[in-house]
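[job 4471] stage=fold_predict status=RUNNING
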Amino acid sequence: MHQGFQQRRPWWGRAWLSAALALLCAGCSAGRCGGGATGSGAQAPPDSGPRPQASQGPRSPPDSGSLPLEERRAIAGVIAFISERARQKDVWLVKPTGEETQLTHSPNEDDYTAAPSPDGKALLVIATRSVGGLHMEQLRVLPLGGGPLVPLNAPRARARNPSWSPDGRWLVAESDAKNFSDVVRLEPKQDTAEKYLTKAREGSFEPAVSPDGTEIAFVSSREGDPEIFVMRADGSNVRRITAFYQEDREPKWSPDGKWLSFISNREGRDRYFLVRPDGTQLRALSGAATKLDERELVWSPDSQQVAFVERLPDARSRILVASVAGGEPAALTDGQQRDDAPAWSPDGKYLVFVAERQGDVDLWLMRADGSGQARLTTAPGADWLPRWFVPR
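[job 4471] inference complete, writing structure tokens
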């Protein structure tokens, strides 16, 4: 694993979690996105739009009791997650009421949740194993209605960061089948052919399909430092969106397609920024209200808010929510322990997150304002990396 990835692993990251972040949220980082190339000099970012107002810090989370079971019964969807209650990592489902179902059981492999299909009928899984001392990855489609996992590629060193098209007929992912790292397009079928959308020697990483399916955002160091690029869904018309001499990475589209979020160390810390898909109106997301490293951003379904994590001293962290329109972010958790990896409910009224509060790493639920925090999983062993969706 490369050095930059190791520096960004989650708070609960023991050695085994290095692979997870590399697979799912750290395809490009220090010293490896583009082979550690440096830019030719600092370039000013595009003209920024209005910035959020400075503040003394995020508002405190509300104080309320745990979500009642009756309310939890009315919450739609299920949550896919990784559990380590066995010796290996398996994929499970849990309802907001706490009923669990095991989806994978691979004693000689580790399975990681990736992304549910847009129609809610399948789940992408990244299976990893060691072959002759080499780390190997394989993208698989898990039909939720029953049936075996469908492998999409032969096991190889890099098959990660998948992103679905909105109609579910194709997806993009990272691949090292021909080069260090390419963005490839493929169909969710066994033995599918991969169409190579990038050919940069320095590598291309972290592809994200736009909500309308016409464009793909990705990261590459082809012109110096890691920057955000956007291309058409067929790989044509590549354009650079960010221009700075530090690292810009982890592009994520707002659900309405009007914004791209990304994380950058241009201020000497990891911080989230927003930019229009044409490269204009670039601004920091949290204004002056946060001072420490940020991570794990997720968009609300209505594109009006984002939830993200702020690292705190002593290995603590807290979850914040910020309005895309600007203003002071609100703290949803109090930062007295380790909270991470938020994911929105499909209706945007709740969040699931990972916390270590009662002697184990578990999933927790809360309302979107931070109230009603309730432990969701209780089995011994770490439960983490939640993905919330509505199955069909």
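[job 4471] summary: The longest helix spans residues 17-24.
[job 4471] exit 0
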